[in-house]
């Protein structure tokens, strides 16, 4: 098997009280080394506790910025978080994430934050994010969800065509895959990661065929595993090695403006 350079675009730092999962910086890097992952894009872990509202989101974002400073060259880009249920109070944190902390965008997992992707608060937050050049919004979807269904992401993508939306875990089952591929054909500003993809019936090949090799980014959903299945899923795909290189690293470099080492 070819040893591909790997940039993981779906990595969560922190403690999830909902799932009882902890992803410290050391644990994230340990799993990167164990699985042969070279660089990662990090974001706060969904399900973190926030009894203090926006102040808790600020603490999560400060943690992302600190991890990037402490581990340059390994943790190479970061996404912040704001909670749409905090309403207008969250908007200032969008500016702090992008201006003061210098992060690449925001992460949303609406099954955890409690409001639907197409809620007015989400539109207000993404409108603020859209003011920044090359902004990325990592948005988790699930076909069965009433809060983060693929069509709801489509409404955001249509409203904000200058934002790159990174659809997180879009191929978890065959129905989700079908909805995600339809979504991608409708909205060219959505790119798709490979995290938690189902492993049968060629999901990666289908995505490349229908959306193009430039719109699929390799990802693992660190720290939710010990040994990731997402590497062999792409490495063993019926695709040319040059295409695999783009999926494993090239597309991440372009979307997140990461210089090649």
UniProtKB/TrEMBL annotation:
Record keyword Lyase present: yes
Domain Amidohydrolase-related: 58-257
An MF annotation (GO) of this entry: carboxy-lyase activity
Highest rank taxon of the organism: Bacteria
Signal sequence annotation: none
Pfam families for the chain: Amidohydro_2 (PF04909)
InterPro entries from the UniProt entry: ACMSD (IPR032465), Amidohydro-rel (IPR006680), Metal_Hydrolase (IPR032466)
Key words, A-Z: Lyase
PANTHER family: 2-AMINO-3-CARBOXYLMUCONATE-6-SEMIALDEHYDE DECARBOXYLASE
Protein name: Amidohydrolase-related domain-containing protein
Native species: Acrocarpospora pleiomorpha
């Amino acid at each position: 098997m070819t040893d591909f350079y790997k940039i993981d675009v779906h990595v969560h730092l922190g403690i999830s009280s909902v799932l009882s999962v902890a992803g410290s910086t050391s644990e994230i890097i340990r799993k990167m080394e164990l699985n042969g992952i070279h660089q990662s894009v990090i974001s706060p872990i969904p399900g973190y506790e926030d009894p203090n509202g926006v102040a808790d989101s600020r603490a999560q974002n400060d943690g992302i910025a600190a991890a990037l400073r402490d581990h340059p060259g390994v943790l190479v880009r970061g996404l912040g978080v704001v909670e749409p249920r905090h309403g207008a109070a969250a908007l200032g944190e969008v500016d702090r994430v992008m201006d003061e902390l210098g992060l690449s965008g925001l992460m949303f997992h609406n099954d955890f934050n409690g409001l639907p992707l197409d809620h007015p608060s989400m539109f207000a937050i993404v409108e603020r994010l859209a003011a920044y050049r090359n902004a990325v919004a990592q948005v988790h979807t699930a076909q069965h969800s009433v809060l983060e269904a693929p069509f709801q992401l489509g409404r955001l993508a249509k409203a904000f065509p200058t934002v790159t939306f990174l659809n997180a875990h879009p191929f978890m089952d065959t129905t989700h895959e079908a909805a995600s591929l339809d979504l991608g054909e409708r909205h060219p500003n959505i790119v798709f990661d490979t995290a938690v993809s189902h492993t049968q019936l060629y999901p990666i090949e289908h995505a490349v065929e229908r959306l193009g090799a430039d719109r699929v980014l390799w990802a693992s959903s660190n720290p939710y595993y010990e040994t990731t299945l997402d590497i062999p899923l792409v490495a063993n795909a019926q695709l040319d090695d040059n295409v695999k290189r783009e999926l494993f690293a090239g597309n991440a470099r372009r979307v997140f403006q990461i210089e090649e080492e």
